[in-house]
Target: UPF0178 protein HM131_09350
Amino acid sequence: MSKQIQNVWVDADSCPVQNEIVEVCSSFCVTPKFVATVNHYSPDKLDQNWTFLDHGSQSVDLYIINHSMAGDLVVSQDLSLAVLLTSKGVYVITPRGKLVKEDEANTIMEQKHIRQQTMKRSRKWKGPSAFTKADREHFRGQLEKMLSQIEGFQ
Model:
């Protein structure tokens, strides 16, 4: 039995797949809720469902944590946020199309700790690889799959 996702939240400050989210969600009659800080404001975003918050280090994360509910879907590349959300039954997918699962929490946090320690010592850390067309297509396919039948991802 599949479960329909009621809300799609987007951590929109640095989300490279905003257009794909709008297109896929519209085909499922779901209106995504974009959340960003005011430094990402533009008048053309007012025709969509955007919430703009004061600039703060975790303002978008806190808003999404406080407003999302079990069964909702969040698009975010912030894996620390993902760990908090999956523990309350929220589905999280990255812009590269990876579903974050609750049982990955320890690994995610250990990797974050190692990354922080490495940065303290060497002040260098290699970031993610460049975002590609293939990443964009993979995300689109995964989002379509999740919105059409959430059971396959549990």
Summary: Residues 9 and 33 are 5 Å apart (CA to CA). The chain has a mean pLDDT of 83. The chain has five helices and six strands. Strands lie at 8-11, 32-37, 50-53, 73-75, 91-93, 99-100.
